[in-house]
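Lab notes, practical 5.
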Amino acid sequence: MGFIYLMNKTLFLWLLISIITSSCSFKDEKLTKDSFANVNTISVIIDDQLWNGEVGDSIRNKFASPVLGLPQEEPLFSINQYPVKLFEGFSTDSRNIIIVKKSNENKFEFKKNEFANPQNAFHISGKTSFEIIELLEKNAPEIVQKMRAIEIAHNQRMFKDSLLNTKKIQKKFNIDLLIPSKYEYVMRRKNFIWLKREIISGNTSLIIYQVPWNSIRPNDAVSNIVKIRDSIGKAYIHGSDYATQMVTEAAYSPYFSKTKLAGNKSYETKGTWQMKNDFMSGPFINYVIFDKPNKRILVLEGFCYAPSKEKRDLMFELESIIKSIQINK
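Output from the prediction step:
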């Protein structure tokens, strides 16, 4: 009897230790699980009362505002809202989480990889709705910047699963790019390359070319960029009839900003294009890179034709490709 009792006691202790070990292991795993959320999606953890009031309006205005340069309104981020009590499970898998609640102190805190990897978690608390909104307004630019950066990095990691051979690009322009293998070369000329990906009812395109160093002047940058891209359209990008050509849509002024790519001064221009003498049109994003060591201006542009589709994520993929650029020394 004593031997059986001892064996039962030993077995019980072994099972207990196994359960505790498994439980701890599960908790560690939960904290470091990979994020598999859809691109450009935010989980907002906030109680319904705040979400349906001025705080929710502020969140939507800041993070679901229309993307610049698209022909139809599409939100900067898609937002999924969850009440605080339901903050568990798949809601913690999001790469971007904003946790908003009323508290005894006004506080903004950023935590990296808090519930998943990679992940941005932003904690915002305030004594009143007005104070929460003040914190949202103040920190929104930083939040958007970090969210866009993590989404671009996510896209670029996904590209690496199946990359296009870019030796032709390397040889012609002395640059490296991460381009998914679903893109194909459709045209190569002396200082011009065009790649295209076919999608249902349309396509996305990436073009790369270079122009002389003095082609774009800072005081007249937008008109210079439009003039150059229209000349490229006339030379290379036509519809089914050769008399058609891609031009920048004149009815809307492009959105222009200064940035940096591959460590170089650059210009970003977003707008819409149309096919002259044809019905086709769509958005474009154009990057002009001043490659001073090589005394040239590199231009990388993405554009899409997708009349029956939302275009935000299609254009974001092209932006992610362009922002992977490295200029070889």
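Observations recorded by the TA: The longest helix spans residues 129-159. DSSP finds seven helices and 17 strands in the chain.
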